Amino acid sequence: MSNYCLSSSSSSSLQYLKVKRWEPKLIVPAKPTPYEQKKLSDIDNQEALRYQVPIIMFYPNNLLNEGKDPAKVICEAVGKALVPYYPFAGRLIEEGPNKKLTVDCNEEGVLFIEAEANVTLDQLGHIILPLTGPFLDEFLHDLPGCEGIIGCPLLLFQVTRLLCGGFVFAVRINHTMADAPGMMQFLNAIAEFAHGATEPSVSPVWERHLLNARDPPRINLDTNQVMEVQPKMVIETFYFGPSEINAIKKHVEERCTTFELLTACLWKCRTEALELEPEQIVRLSFVVNLRWKKHKNLHVPSGYYGNAFGFPVVISKAGDLCKNSLGYVVELVKKTKAQMSENYVKSVADFMVIMGQPESLKGNFFVSDVTRVGYGELDFGWGKPVCAGPCRVSRHLACVYRRHRNRGEDGIAVPICLPELAMARFCQELKKMKGNGSGSFKLQSEV
């Protein structure tokens, strides 16, 4: 019998883990690159994107690479990738009254840490699952003075060799420089150079002006969307495989995508778990990739690696979500998703210019689906990772969908942040959706 809730790491699991790190070094482009300044777009410039995105991948041993050092191979590949992607080797500066971000392309380089751990991948097995545990700090070490946005390295890499011959690849990327597809495009370039390529298969495109505000700027969206984010206290990771998705589908008569179904279900269960006043306004916000063909009117070119996404917001009264069916909530999601347009995206950029930089969204369930980004396909020459994706649950992205293989089946792992009592109610609401009278069971990851 399958169930939703995945196990999280415990402190006892960390007692044996020790990581030895070499002195960090700066990796500069392997060849000279232009010295210039390149402005970010008004979409890049959002205050809500001024943070670091940590991504981690766990690789098993590959006997075909006996004698090869993954740290050396990846380090050299990073230097080569920084030639076409030379803005990543620069530093951000702020200009003007709106603190517009600009990259000073100066070849200062990115940080790289080589490390070794006293464990095997099998020993890490059950604690790598949620990608939210405190042990992740061992595999992506924060260097003092380098965690900022302005004047700091835009990338931090750490490659940690394991006793079994496998390794852990981790990277921290400044979100203002790239969104998930853009980050993956850059990481794929590194992987291609690690395989011996002389140039990336996809040429990087800057063209950030395409997602700037209009002249003159004009706002055509609801400014009530911009507010503060609520604090979260407990993190649990939930698994949705084929049986869970099929159980939820039984509550909906309308045709919908897995994303629409799962997002509506989580938003409804979360709202019910928080026990809000019926008249309180709640919001659902989700990321929509503007590179899709149906958004071709936005003219985002192939190879563009900046932030190219919209975040449509569904607004409802808490009472309406709780008393109506799941199908009602699915229709809200579908309707808002269909309204994504060039006007909406440009209005967001215009808002940044006219109103300044909002912090984030209050009372907002913020969802980002990275199941199709390709983290689990990244191959530096050792094969695909057994577990991969953004790690830690950020206050900016409270809910990130990622691919996860559980007991031989492919599904979606979802970290949820809630106050402790609300988390217990959330699990009960999910159980109702599943139509299963038994309690939630912790699942073990398989490495």
UniProtKB/TrEMBL annotation:
GO molecular function: transferase activity
UniProtKB keywords: Transferase
Superkingdom of origin organism: Eukaryota
Gene3D superfamilies linked: Chloramphenicol acetyltransferase-like domain
Protein name according to UniProt: Benzyl alcohol O-benzoyltransferase
Stated family: Belongs to the plant acyltransferase family.
